[in-house]
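okkk here we go again. third time trying to get the calcium ion bound version out, last two times i messed up the smiles copy paste (missing a bracket lol). double checked this time i swear
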Amino acid sequence: MQLQRITTWAAFLATAIACSARAEEKPPSLGGLFPAGCSRPGTVAVTALGDFPSWPLKAWVADESENKTGVACKVLKEKGKLEISVPGDTEPGIYWLRLYNAAGASSPRPFLVSTLPGILEKNAGSQAGDAIRLEKNGVMVHGRLEKKGEVDKITVKLDTGAVLVADLLANRVLASPMDASLQVTSPAGFILAENDDDQGMDPRIVFRAPSEGLYIVRIFSFPAKPNSSIQFAGEKSYVYRLALTTGPFIEYAYPLAAGLSESPQLTLNGWNIPAERKLTRVAAVERRTQGSIRLPGAANQAAIDREDGDIITEEKYPGTGRLLKPSGTLLLSGRTGSAGEKDVFLLTSAEERKLSVSVKARELGSLLDPVLSIKGPDSKTLSEADDTDGGLDCKTEFTAAGGKTYRIEITDRYSHGGQRFYYLLRVATPEKSFSLALGADSFVLEEGKKLEIPVTIARHGGFDRKILVTASGLPDGIRSTTAESVPGQDSAKAVKLILEGTSTAPGAPFRITGKTGEKEDAPGIAGYKVAGRKRPLQRAWLTVKAK
Ligand SMILES: [Ca+2]
Ligand SMILES: [Ca+2]
Ligand SMILES: [Ca+2]
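finally!!
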């Protein structure tokens, strides 16, 4: 009897140990966070959404440039519960969080840090008695449409003439699988303003209160991938962040580009921007980048492309003249200011030149769906582009003969126009460069075995140099081969790295870099796609699994 009991216990213990070992054999999968952000300084209880075969996990947080940050994530005892704390000196923006165990790491998911106070939708004013009073400032409401048919309602109190900006972020950045809509209604339910899609699938409303009183902001959604249901949708993953403000909201700076060193004057466009704040300057930067412009108390930030070149606006473009000599890079900001407007620019190159022409609009938050066409000296269309690289913005290339005049035409796909239909036209010599890409964001090396990492190589503008690809920043004890990508061979487009070794580090971020040995070629870092992010991230994750 006694013996049998012991054997049963032993069997039970063995099973328990095996179960926990098996759980640790599977990596966590993180779909998102709720709430998906907080204000600075702040500490917030966050629920991790996903599949966690083991708990507690470890957390890793990085800033938008994938560097170390003061934003810290504590993993609590209760499964799925985290505590994220944001110090007062944290830059507002997007932070990336991974959860990991001994078996692997989740994909990075975003956490938004704002200077505006954050509130949970369930604590926001749903009754007249606890309406949010917005007095020339704003709040970030963190909410979720959890169940089918759910409609979130937030009551705000507005003064006569107050301009309310309601901007929802869900499908973009957070990659919530929802196609949301917003409405502003009277307390009796009359719809005063509504919007389905503004920034992609995410809605934005700008509403001027006709009189002092209470107004209700309603949020509801359909699935991002349409189904046959006509009911409003809701899921645990339908996480959103709603900016509600009667304070400043920057939409874009004009012009949309600035040089690296100069600090030109830019005009801020948007809503509720005080007159004395409308003109601004930007600090010098070292290299070509996309920067952002912020304003104290503003609910949004504007993107600004930083690059040296001829920076002009369509307003400065002489009606009868030619575009400035395209010997360098040309960055022209413009708008299709009214319905049906077609912007036409003439271009003459002194000698024969291959040119790359691109129009950025949606990437910068514009409502313009640009169509670009290039017409030759005989008015024949040489090239036309509408949507390139999976987005609505466009680019093309053509060869300009010396001394001949070409027309560059920009219109909206649906002939729409207005102040919010802005674009940045870029004309430049096609760059000779390369980029590296990974098919995954996380890799597992089993001790005693070899890990093969495939890297794909894109060669732009006929880039024809040999590239040496290797892994860097690996944990102590882990080695990587160096692979050669040689033009004209199979390795021109794809190589494989082999990692092996042993390490005490259970997991760590690392990078895969490519170099040519030529000083003028910038080294490349392999990137991987992240749901909701326009540009790839570059710090992949390596798990070293003990034998
Ligand atoms: Ca929508
Ligand atoms: Ca125009
Ligand atoms: Ca387009």
